[in-house]
Design goal:
242 residues; alpha+beta; 2 domains; eight-stranded mixed sheet; two-stranded antiparallel sheet; 6 helices; 32% helix
Length: 242
Amino acid sequence: MAILRKLVSDVRAMHKLLSTDNLITDRAIASEIKNNTQLLVKRETNLRKLWANDTLFTTIPCLEMIEVPISECCDYVDPCSVARTRFKIPRISVGNYQYVIQGVWSINAMGGQGSRFKEITINRYLNLLKLPIIKKESYFWIANDYLYISNPLLQSIRLAAFFEEDVPNEIMYSECCCTSNMYPVEDLCKNPLDKEYGCPGYLEKQVLELTSQKLLSTYFRLKTDITDDGVDGQAPNTKPTN
């Protein structure tokens, strides 16, 4: 798996201008790399590719759940409870068909992966509640930046998804369940540029090319405008000649 700083360095190396221009920060390049990765990953997942690629998805080992009334996420008035993540989750990429989520699982007594939940929309789940049958399946859905599980007694879950935002340390390194010692302490303070970046290998070249093109067309066009026409595109003041 690539390191984000290495991808930033590769972008700079593609053009001599990018390697010496201080206007373009590593953070700006990294942001553009992430944008283009998301664009290409959405294209691939819409084609039903990459779903078995472990390097693409970020796994949050343990998310604490709390019991809440189902009316919190919908207009259903029945006294029914569900489980909800205690904290809001980072934004997850959305494709043509569903969220780009590899899986949501319960956590068993030993801290390992338990049963897998099925994704559903809240409206479909409400329709199931109206049916006169016993519901044995457990489902999950996302609303208001929280993840909900139909089983109100659930205490914790494991989530693997393609996030469009960095996962905060307080969520990734939570002391929930048995995960507090899963990561070395130095990971808490690691620069985001030095972390492994989930871009599939066969997409790296396209990501770098798209990023380079965007930077050249945006930053250097702006720089040329400022140089030729004055600051912010305004023509420099000139004095009439006698």
